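Thread title: Can someone regenerate the structure for this chain?

I was given the following input by a collaborator and told the matching structure tokens would be attached. They weren't. Posting the sequence so someone can regenerate them.
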Amino acid sequence: MISKTNQNQTNKAIIFDSGALISFSMNGITHIIKKLKEIFKGKFLITPNVKKEIIDNPMKIRRFKLEALKLKQLLDEGVLELSSSLEINDSEITKKTNEILDVANATFNDGGKNINIMHTGEASSLALGKILNERKIKNVIVIDERTTRILAEKTENLKKFHVKIKIIMENLKLFKDFRIIRSTELIYVAYKKGLIKLKDGNVLNTLLYAMKFKGAAISGDEIEEIKKLG
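Best answer:
Regenerated them for you:
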């Protein structure tokens, strides 16, 4: 349980899934996360599962160790914080993570076979969001995985991914209260706030496409819509 003092000091948070952080790291722009944290009056949180996916496991693989070190530095500096910083027990997250996985991966059925659409890291991020909702802490979850986002936003679009898909509509109620954004939306916020110091006139376009090419599930049309926001 979160102490009253700690809860009063934290009334909002951004929860990061693995894919979004990996996109920042692979593009060499983790400093943008640090700058965003400096202007955000709240916490940047990750779950133990996400830490395992972005730091613990990649640190053992030479190919991915550099990206892992960049993200570890954000954690060491307190830019990113584990969910335990809000006195949330790992066991509570694990329990809700398993509940979410069970429902999500039994929601869509193709020819009598359930379709696994969600993995542990994403589910744990949603689990943390659910816990924060219960504690009246405002939060958004940064998830670049398109399928998970659509589950909480535009479920009907999932039909485009499978031919004979059956949807268990009752299961969708579990996902209706989540607020989800993409890493590209954080890039846009950083750009609008003047946190990006590159001077080229096409810097926003360049950054958005860089994120697209290294993990963010966003279409060219969606990038154009973001750019129109000015």
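The chain has one domain: 4-185.
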